[in-house]
């Protein structure tokens, strides 16, 4: 993955748990979401995956290219550290975008998650307690309107 210089755009660092793989990404994410689908829960071992989306050419590996584990296809898969297993990002949208896992950033991004998606399949043991919009499926689904937060 080539690094394209983006004049005037702040670069953020990110890395896996063990530090074997490091990356840089422009702080110019187009969207950020909390995904509650079963695949994201299994991939992260958590209640949801907090991620931010950006064009793939705006992320560059800076260390550890040979230490990657690709789960899926190189143009549509999860990219992990081979040594520690950290999920760094997912390649999506026919290989054009990456979904960077926000927890692997070492610098704070400007963006914050704007919604919860796939809440119809969220973990039964987890309660969403914020007021972000909630979507039963994908935020882009035409027939899916934000659901009102459940009363506490």
Radius of gyration: 16 Å
What's the N-to-C terminus distance? 46 Å
Q: Find the structural class using helix and strand composition.
A: mainly beta
Q: Biggest sheet: strands side by side, in what order?
A: 6-7-8-9-4-3-10
List unreliable stretches of 5+ residues: none
Task: Fill in the keyword field for this structure.
34% strand; 3-stranded antiparallel beta sheet; 152 residues; 7-stranded mixed beta sheet; single chain; 5% helix; mainly beta; 1 helix
Written description of the protein model:
The structure is a single chain. The protein has one helix and ten strands. The protein has one helix at about 40-45; strands at about 10-15, 20-25, 30-35, 50-55, 60-65, 70-75, 75-80, 85-90, 95-100, 115. The protein has a seven-stranded mixed β-sheet with strand order 6-7-8-9-4-3-10. Strands 1-2-5 form a three-stranded antiparallel β-sheet, with no helix packed on it. The longest helix is centred in the N-terminal third of the chain and has 7 residues, at about 40-45. The mean pLDDT is about 90.
Short description, anyone?
Strand 1 and strand 2 (22-26) form a beta hairpin.
Sequence-ordered SSE layout with sheet pairings:
Elements (H helix, E strand, L loop, with lengths): L10 E5 L6 E5 L4 E5 L2 H7 L4 E7 L3 E5 L4 E6 L2 E6 L5 E6 L4 E5 L14 E2 L35
Parallel strand pairs: 3-10
Antiparallel strand pairs: 1-2, 2-5, 3-4, 4-9, 6-7, 7-8, 8-9
């Amino acid at each position: 993955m080539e690094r394209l210089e983006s004049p005037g755009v702040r670069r953020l660092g990110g890395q896996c748990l063990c530090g074997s793989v490091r990356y840089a990404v422009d702080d110019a994410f187009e969207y950020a979401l909390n995904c509650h689908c079963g695949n994201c829960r299994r991939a992260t071992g958590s209640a949801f995956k907090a991620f931010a989306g950006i064009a793939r050419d705006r992320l560059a590996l800076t260390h550890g290219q040979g230490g990657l584990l690709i789960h899926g296809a190189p143009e549509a898969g999860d990219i992990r550290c081979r040594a520690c297993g950290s999920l760094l990002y997912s390649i999506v949208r026919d290989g054009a975008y990456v979904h960077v896992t926000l927890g692997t950033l070492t610098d704070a991004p400007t963006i914050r998650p704007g919604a919860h998606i796939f809440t119809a399949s969220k973990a039964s043991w987890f309660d969403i307690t914020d007021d972000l919009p909630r979507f039963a499926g994908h935020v882009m689904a035409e027939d899916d309107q934000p659901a009102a937060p459940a009363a506490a």
